[in-house]
Write a structure and sequence with these properties.
The chain is α+β, with helices and mostly antiparallel strands. 39% of the residues lie in helices and 25% in strands. The protein folds into three domains: 5-137 and 237-302, no CATH class; 152-222; 320-386, no CATH class. It has helices spanning 49-64, 82-90, 145-174, 182-195, 243-266, 277-302, 310-317, 345-354, 372-386; strands spanning 5-13, 24-32, 37-44, 72-75, 94-98, 107-108, 115-118, 124-131, 138-144, 203-209, 215-222, 231-236, 322-328, 334-340, 364-368.
Length: 387
């Protein structure tokens, strides 16, 4: 395993978005390729992501590069501006990010062939080296079938809603008292376009009017546009030639981001409802501690061929339940029997990989004697019955 580091940043807000009274903080972490934390720090969050990178890299680099090795900086698309990439290049850093370049501005390398890899769910992903004109960096074309299916389903929903909106405008034209003015109809279409900015560009819309600027008909037709669903480019200045290794390095940030999304839900890591710095730091450090536990478990599972995401692991382990049976005997004692259900095959695989017992504890039986008030009540009942 190559000993490289990656720098990634997350935002954790003290309130919901679009709240001027809620401050933001930036949590920056340095991790290795296995996802283990090497360094973390909290920064001010009142600046844009793209403007905080220089200070974060300088401070984290001084803290972690004790042996002279330079970290690999992995960026998401939001922070991967040309200015930040040029900054990293000028300071001698290796970087990898999702490219902002248009997907039409590249061509396939003639000396390479597609490489098939699988994600954590066993779904196929195709990697292919490509070249972007007038750019010295290397690019990796990534096509995910699962991502394509997801994006196509989302697009289909938006297309349906957009056409329903057009249909409502068209029906209004034919109704008595409906909006028929040419300017009014285009205004309604403009509002519909603003609501679905990623969909309206796929349509040709024609508004037909008469000499009085009264709309008589509304037509639309979907354009034939080359699909881009499930496709994106990875950009890097690394000398690494193997597509699989480049994909593994980029997936470091993907793994961490997915785990943090789960922890933010399970631990309420975001939003942060604290009013002072110390409480906010304690809240974030609790999340980092939980991440250490999660990543340690996932690392041990990966060494044994179990590559499930954390959310899947939690869901699978929740299928094994603790069953508690309660009953009373003729001495008014409460008997409690507690035992675990039998683990499923997937639960057994996880236990085996972690070298845990398949049943956390053996069947336990408790006998709880009745309270004094219960004894007194029982005696009174017996007296009443005998009388």
């Amino acid at each position: 395993m190559r000993d490289r580091n990656a720098i990634a940043t997350w935002h954790s807000s003290a309130g919901v978005e679009k709240r001027s009274d809620a401050k933001l903080v930036v949590l920056g972490v340095v991790v290795n390729v296995e996802g283990f934390l090497k360094y973390s720090n909290i920064y001010e969050g009142n600046t844009a992501d793209a403007t905080t990178l220089a200070g974060i890299i300088e401070q984290m680099g001084d803290r972690t590069s004790v042996t002279g090795r330079r970290p690999v900086v992995v960026l998401d698309a939001g922070i991967a501006t040309e200015a930040n990439i040029e900054l990293l290049r000028s300071k001698g850093y290796k970087y990898m990010c999702v490219s902002r370049s248009g997907l039409k501005k590249y061509k396939t390398c003639t000396d390479s062939s597609p490489v098939q890899v699988q994600d954590n769910k066993g779904q196929s992903i195709t990697l292919q080296k490509v070249v972007v004109d007038n750019c010295p960096d290397r690019f990796l074309h990534v096509h995910s079938s699962a991502k394509q299916q997801k994006e196509e389903n989302m697009k289909a929903q938006f297309v349906q809603r957009f056409e329903q909106g057009l249909q409502l405008i068209k029906e209004s034209i034919g109704k008595k008292g409906g909006a028929k003015g040419y300017a009014v109809v285009w205004e309604r279409i403009g509002r519909l376009k603003a609501k679905y900015p990623s969909i309206h560009r796929y349509y040709d819309i024609e508004v037909i009017k008469d000499v009085r600027d009264i709309v008589t008909e509304l037509k639309w037709q979907q354009k034939k546009v080359a699909t881009k669903e499930g496709i994106y480019l990875l950009r890097t200045n690394m000398n690494e030639q193997e597509e699989h290794t480049q994909w593994m390095i980029y997936n470091t940030i993907r793994e961490i981001e997915y785990t943090f999304r789960t922890l933010k839900t399970d631990l309420d890591l975001r939003p942060i409802y604290h009013k002072n710095d110390e409480a906010t730091k304690a809240h974030l450090h609790l999340g980092l501690l939980a991440y250490w536990v999660v990543n340690t478990i996932r690392y041990q599972l990966k060494q044994n061929g179990v590559n499930n995401e954390w959310r899947d692991i939690v869901r699978i382990m929740n299928t094994q339940k603790m069953v508690t049976t309660t009953m009373n005997n003729n001495r008014y004692e409460q008997i409690v029997i507690r035992q675990c259900s039998e683990p499923s095959e997937k639960v057994t695989d996880i236990y085996t990989a972690l070298r845990y017992r398949q049943v956390p504890f053996a069947k336990r039986k408790f006998v709880v004697p009745p309270a004094k008030t219960a004894k007194r009540q029982a005696s009174e009942n017996e007296i009443g019955l005998s009388g």
